[in-house]
Amino acid sequence: MGMVSSGLKIELTPAAARNSTLGGLGENGADEIKFLFSANKGHALAEMSKVASGGELSRLMLSIKSLIAKNTALPTIIFDEIDTGVSGEVAHKVGQIMEQLANNLQVITITHLPQIASKGRRHYFVYKDDTTATTYTRIKQLDADERILEIAKMLSGDKPGESALQNARELLTP
């Protein structure tokens, strides 16, 4: 996923090794878990929350969720904008991983990236309808032509030109 020199270490400190007046129990349980991470060669591992960018966190979460999904009997996995902070080739790779996961379970993804939206077998458009006195959230399954148009809009804006439409068609071609 575009992090070839990265490293991840999970550091577990059992309750017995910590000082606590509650017999090892803290507000978050008995053990302390730290995720140590480095995205770059030659950099020391440090707490993930302090050194990982938004895109790196998104890719790490996808990796962790993918491993969990492969080793448990999950029927469905939902990714809500897990692609935050990624684009280009990395977005394409993230989409491929989600596509592979979909071979064994149902994957529902909320995304604004065309590289990811184009990998789905079905495409739903969620929108606000405020034509009445009250705003409603609606969802619509897109047909093939609507899907091309929507992915083209993701690429270039509300009025996509022929090049965006062609790019959308290419993204949708297996």
Describe the structure.
The chain is an alpha+beta fold and 174 residues long. It folds into 2 domains: 1-52, no CATH class; 54-172, P-loop containing nucleotide triphosphate hydrolases (Rossmann fold, 3-Layer(aba) Sandwich), CATH 3.40.50. Helices cover 37% and strands 22% of the residues. It is built from 6 helices and 7 strands; from the N terminus they run E-E-E-H-H-E-H-E-H-E-E-H-H. The chain has helices at residues 48-51, 54-71, 88-101, 114-117, 144-156, 162-172, and strands spanning 7-13, 32-38, 46-47, 76-80, 106-110, 124-129, 136-141. The strands form 3 sheets. Strands 1-2-3 form a 3-stranded antiparallel sheet. Strands 4-5 form a two-stranded parallel ribbon. Strands 6-7 form a two-stranded antiparallel ribbon. Helix 2 packs parallel to helix 3 and helix 5 (144-156) packs across helix 6 (162-172). The longest helix has 18 residues, at 54-71. The protein is globular and about 60 Å long. The mean pLDDT is 87.
Describe the secondary structure blueprint for this structure.
Elements: E1 7-13, E2 32-38, E3 46-47, H1 48-51, H2 54-71, E4 76-80, H3 88-101, E5 106-110, H4 114-117, E6 124-129, E7 136-141, H5 144-156, H6 162-172
Helix pairs in contact: 2-3, 5-6
Name the descriptors.
single chain; 174 residues; alpha+beta; Rossmann fold; 2 domains; three-stranded antiparallel β-sheet; two-stranded parallel sheet; 6 helices; 7 strands; 37% helix
